Amino acid sequence: QDTLSVYFDFNSSSLTSTEVKKITDFKKSDYTSIEGMSAFCDTVGTSSYNNSLANKRLEAVLSLLESSSKNTTLNGEKEAENSSNYNAAQSRRVDIIYKKKNRPQHGKGLWF
């Protein structure tokens, strides 16, 4: 499994053009499936507000992916509260957990 992290500006659920391009490029990539998604927030604001913002961020990414992933998690500010290396900007994100396609390895086991 691999993870693509999409970041948001402070107090925003709108994607910047850089993050939109990241998702657009991901959609064109050679992945097998999206296994799940997790949305996060920093610790500014109330817990209920941050959970709502995390949900809006998740919905923004799902909409751009044109996906309705069933394995989604709203972490709100839980990760930020428990991290000893807390970085607010790193906590404003949605993680897309996906599987890559297995590529055949050339030259192994092939006889010509």
Could you tell me the radius of gyration in angstroms? Answer: 17 Å
Number of helices, counting only DSSP H or I runs of 4 residues or more: 4
Q: What's the overall average pLDDT, rounded?
A: 83
Spans where pLDDT lies below 50 across 5 or more residues: none
Helix/strand order, N-terminal first:
EHEHEHHE
Helix content: 25-40%
The span between the termini is 33 Å
- How can the largest sheet be summarized? 4 strands, mixed
Supply the helix-strand structural class.
alpha+beta
Record field, number of beta strands? 4
**What global shape is seen?**
globular
If strands are numbered along the chain, what order do they take across the biggest sheet?
A: 1-4-2-3
Q: How big a fraction of the residues is strand?
A: 25-35%
Give the helix/strand layout:
Blueprint: E1 2-7, H1 17-28, E2 31-40, H2 47-65, E3 72-76, H3 78-82, H4 88-91, E4 93-100
Parallel strand pairs: 2-3
Antiparallel strand pairs: 1-4, 2-4
What would you note in describing this structure?
The chain has 112 residues and is an alpha+beta fold. It has helices spanning 17-28, 47-65, 78-82, 88-91, and strands spanning 2-7, 31-40, 72-76, 93-100. Strands 1-4-2-3 form a 4-stranded mixed beta sheet. The chain is globular, with a radius of gyration of 17 Å.
